[in-house]
Amino acid sequence: MTAKVEKLMGNMEKKVDKEMWKEMEVKKQSVRFDFVTNSIVQGISSINSKAFHMNVLGCKDLKFISVKISAPGNSVNTDGIHIGESTGISVAHSIIGTGDDCISIGPGNNDINIFDVQCGPGHGISIKRPKQIYK
């Protein structure tokens, strides 16, 4: 695995609440990118993760280039890349095939660019709504 990371810590304008952290702790990810700024992740692969392959939280100006992610088509909750509370995220020239979402975009994101990404099997690219509380 090779990755070029120019800066590990970044500034985050939004605060992540306790519920979000609790939810992220429950779901195990193969690779987490938390609060990374102005960086490139290039040429890495993730195979047969038990849950999310890559999780992006609170990042700014992070690019994924030539990423390969694979899991069997019947594997549940194996999102390729999950993006939440981030700005300026790009996924390009990649192959993502899982049993769940190729790329899932959670709430609180801005300026997400996805191009030349081959998805499948799985659900493709999904945009998640914030959880609603019903009384």
TrEMBL record:
Ion transport in keyword set: no
Q: Which residues form a coiled coil?
A: none
Swiss-Prot/TrEMBL keywords: Cell wall, Cell wall biogenesis/degradation, Glycosidase, Hydrolase, Secreted
- Chief location bin: secreted
Enumerate the subcellular locations listed in this protein's record, separating them with semicolons. Answer: Secreted, Cell wall
Q: Which PANTHER family match?
A: PTHR31375
**InterPro entries membership:** Glyco_hydro_28, Pectin_lyas_fold, Pectin_lyase_fold/virulence
Q: Organism's domain of life?
A: Eukaryota
Query: This protein is called what?
Result: Uncharacterized protein
One GO BP annotation of this record: carbohydrate metabolic process
UniProt KW Transport keyword: no
- A Pfam entry, by short name: Glyco_hydro_28
Q: Which family does it belong to?
A: Belongs to the glycosyl hydrolase 28 family.
GO molecular-function terms, A-Z: polygalacturonase activity
